[in-house]
From TrEMBL:
Residues 1-161 form the Lipoxygenase domain. Coiled coil: none annotated. PANTHER family: LIPOXYGENASE. The keyword Metal-binding applies. InterPro entries: LipOase (IPR000907), LipOase_C (IPR013819), LipOase_C_sf (IPR036226). Pfam families: Lipoxygenase (PF00305). It comes from the Eukaryota. Keywords: Dioxygenase, Metal-binding, Oxidoreductase. It comes from Ameca splendens. This is Lipoxygenase domain-containing protein.
Length: 161
């Protein structure tokens, strides 16, 4: 039987919130996990997994137990065949690509916030995101291999799978 309270305790989370600070921390963790952390692990997965030896989805032979006995023939016989490799590439491409209904961090399709104070906070947040994006672009300028997966404009407001 599943015990949600046991899981909460196992993860080190409190079973109740006693202050605004605790609520703020919990919300910050939830927002970070579903935005920036998800982008960090998701957005580059095709670039990594498209080279099948990096992360083979299956192996046709057990991994070698002695690195001195490894041959190219053994590696090729161990890696997935072309069909499985294509399936792996298709799956990671679909999972890692920008979703057609993606909404970038800090953008909202509906007017949930209409009061002046929240609108000012949203504008301040968007300005900070722009600063971060400009900084990342500046650091990547001139690089042959740019790291752009964590550009705020490429981080979604939430996970859309």
């Amino acid at each position: 039987m599943f015990c949600p309270l046991c899981l909460v305790n196992l993860l080190g989370m409190p079973n109740k919130l006693s202050s605004k600070e605790e609520l703020s921390t919990l919300l910050a963790v939830a927002i970070f996990t579903s935005t920036a952390q998800h982008a960090a692990t998701n957005n580059g997965q095709f670039d990594w997994c498209a080279w099948v030896p990096n992360t083979p989805c299956t192996m046709r032979l057990p991994p070698p137990s002695d690195k001195d006995t490894v041959t190219m023939e053994m590696i090729m016989a161990t890696l997935p065949d072309v069909g499985q490799s294509c399936v792996q590439m298709a799956i990671t491409w679909h999972l890692g690509r920008a979703q057609p209904d993606a909404i970038p961090l800090g953008q909202y399709t509906e007017a949930h916030f209409t009061e002046l104070a929240p609108l000012q906070l949203i504008e301040k947040f968007r300005m900070k995101l722009k600063e971060i994006e400009d900084h990342i672009l500046e650091q990547n300028a001139g690089l042959d291999l740019q790291y752009l997966f964590l550009l705020p404009s490429r981080i979604e407001n939430s996970i859309t799978i």
